[in-house]
């Protein structure tokens, strides 16, 4: 039986980088981690129009202490122009995902592994 999430996905999240405690600046490259058990059934339709790359399912990752991580996908969004945190958070919330993170480039996905 699936546990029901108590998160209100309609409420925008504060724009705050967890590392620096400062707001994210607008950027072209954004990363989102999504969990299969949380995704809505139409999640592929939601992202269909976005400039996005979706990783294979990460179901064998382990934390440094050896504990297995929850299965997840990495989504990397790459736009021609800058997008705000709020614009990308709207997509993340529609996918029932944790807050998005700005990444330095299309190929820089290292940040996404730090959940």
Count of DSSP-assigned helices: 2
User: How many discrete domains?
Assistant: 1
Beta-strand content: 15-25%
Helix content: 10-25%
User: Pairing-aware structural class of the strands and helices?
Assistant: alpha+beta
Placed side by side, the strands forming the largest sheet appear as 2-3-1-4
Termini separation (Å)?
A: 25 Å
> What is the architecture at the second tier of CATH?
3-Layer(aba) Sandwich
- Unreliable spans: 108-115
- CATH level-3 fold name: Replication Protein E1, Chain: A
Major sheet size, sense and barrel closure? 4 strands, antiparallel
Mean pLDDT: 88
The backbone outline, from C-alpha atoms, is: globular
CATH first level: which class? Answer: Alpha Beta
Assembly type of the chains comes to single chain
For the CA atoms, what is the radius of gyration?
14 Å
Q: How many strands in all?
A: 4
Strand-and-helix sequence, N→C?
A: EHEEHE
